[in-house]
Design goal:
about 0% helix, single chain, four-stranded antiparallel sheet, elongated, two-stranded antiparallel ribbon, 6 strands
């Protein structure tokens, strides 16, 4: 697993998506996150080893990060 820290000015709906290397969406979850600092944990045990892309989007967020599971 890994953790993501978010610091939001105001409460908003945030979409967490995970894609495999071919671009296929393998996970999607929308959550309302409150204002302030928040840490979210993403668990990867159900996925095979390889490279993935985590995408986080919301009103004030547009973030992508490569993730490698060994």
């Amino acid at each position: 697993y890994f953790s993501i820290s978010l610091n939001l000015v105001q409460s908003e709906d945030v979409l967490f998506e995970m894609f495999d290397i071919s671009g296929k969406k393998i996970f999607s979850k929308k959550e309302t996150i409150g204002a302030g600092n928040t840490t979210k944990t993403v668990r990867l045990e159900q996925y095979d080893s390889g490279m993935y892309v985590l995408k986080i989007t919301g009103k004030e967020i547009n973030y992508s990060q490569k993730v490698i599971k060994k």
